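Researcher: Sequence recovery benchmark, item below. Answer with residues only.
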């Protein structure tokens, strides 16, 4: 069996889109630098929470990106089920997006705990928002574990896609938990029901900058991670082709 096409595919994956991803990475880095400077030195302290409000500039964008990542995983998984006989590209995007989402959800949980310690006097409360967020985090850790079970990429794509489409249903429960139950967690300062924005202009702009910066970082990480998954899948095919070729050579002797 000829393995040359597989080697060509590896080289093609390695060289795809490097210029665009470098530009994306540079823009993300510039926005992150601005976010750090503005969040720590330019924006004012909150009249109630004081300087602890600065955690918001990481906590809120991290939670936003986690939601975005898990929704992306669900959409890509749906496309993977529909087009499962044509390409594994959607499945790779789904897996990469879930990995990045777990990273940012973990960041949201850690920063939320720090914020809670400064605001409530404790790192953790079994509050509806905190509890549902933790459950969402564990669900996607489980999703990533399932992706490691199947060696065959096609089986991996089918099984993980079903889990992703079910897991994404938890996001509305997490988001609206503050409204559905009596929660210690404050309601949204920007996207609230009455439309009243409770932030200073510079604070709002800095928060928006953080959302944009984290979203670009998310895109950059997903592009690179799905590329690595494609390389791993291709190398696995090459290894299988080589094993079959060796076996045929042994039989032919």
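Model:
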């Amino acid at each position: 069996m000829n393995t040359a096409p597989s080697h060509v595919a590896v080289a093609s994956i390695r060289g795809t889109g490097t210029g665009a991803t470098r530009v994306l990475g540079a823009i993300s880095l510039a926005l992150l630098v601005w976010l750090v400077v503005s969040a720590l030195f330019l924006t004012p302290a909150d009249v109630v929470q004081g300087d602890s409000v600065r955690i918001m500039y990481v906590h809120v964008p991290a939670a936003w990106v986690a939601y975005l990542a898990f929704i992306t995983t669900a959409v890509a998984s749906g496309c993977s089920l529909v087009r499962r006989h044509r390409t594994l590209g959607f499945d790779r995007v789904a897996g990469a997006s879930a990995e990045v989402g777990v990273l940012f959800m973990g960041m949201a949980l850690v920063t939320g705990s720090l914020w809670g310690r400064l605001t409530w006097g404790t790192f953790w409360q079994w509050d509806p928002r905190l509890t549902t967020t933790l459950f969402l985090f564990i669900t996607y850790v489980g999703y990533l574990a399932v992706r490691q079970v199947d060696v065959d990429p096609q089986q991996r794509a089918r099984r993980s896609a079903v889990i992703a489409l079910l897991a994404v249903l938890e996001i509305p429960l997490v988001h609206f938990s503050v409204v559905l139950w009596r929660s210690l967690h404050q309601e949204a300062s920007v996207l609230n029901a009455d439309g009243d924005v409770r932030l200073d202009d510079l604070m709002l702009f800095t928060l928006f900058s953080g959302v944009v910066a984290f979203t670009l970082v998310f895109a950059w990480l997903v592009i690179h991670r799905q590329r690595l998954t494609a390389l791993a899948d291709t190398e696995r095919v090459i290894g299988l082709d080589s094993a079959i070729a060796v076996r045929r050579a042994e039989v032919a002797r």
